[in-house]
Amino acid sequence: MVKRKDPKVGTGKKPKGSGRRLYTDENPKDTVGIKFATPADARATVAKVKKVNKPFARKIQILTVGEQRAKVMGKQKVAQIFRQGKDSIRKGKKDGTERRSKKVASKKSGSGTKKG
User: Residues 6 or more apart from 1 whose CB is under 8 A from it?
Assistant: First the structure.
């Protein structure tokens, strides 16, 4: 009977058939820290998430994690700050898509009206 070697320290558990490891941050430089001890920490985290260069869905995911953790700890004010941050990001995305669609529409209507 062959005994398996233990994984290296800090590698976590590897799902079968996958090259990825659970419980380990494979790219720590990419990590966005979440602080939610006080309302000031929550505001700072929301501001940081808004500035970070991540996709929209990832930003929402980060703030949802903060909101859920704050709820579980009974910090309603902090959870509310995270919720407002998510709403703000959603509103910004909605405004951005509206601006882009108006710009495209004006280009289409402007180019087809030539006087000759």
Answer: none
What is the Cα 7 distance to its own chain's centre? 30
Q: Which helix (H) or strand (E) holds 60?
A: helix 56-72
pTM above 0.85, yes or no: no
Among candidates 55, 53, 54, 48, which has minimal Cα distance to 85?
Answer: 48
Residue 45 CB coordination number (10 Å): 22
Task: Find out whether 20 and 14 touch, Cβ atoms under 8 Å.
Answer: yes
27 φψ region: left (φ > 0), alpha (ψ -120 to 50), beta (else): beta
71-100 pLDDT, tens per residue? 999 999 999 999 999 999 999 888 776 665
Kindly report the backbone phi and psi dihedral angles of residue 113, in degrees, each rounded to the nearest multiple of 5, phi listed first.
-110, 75
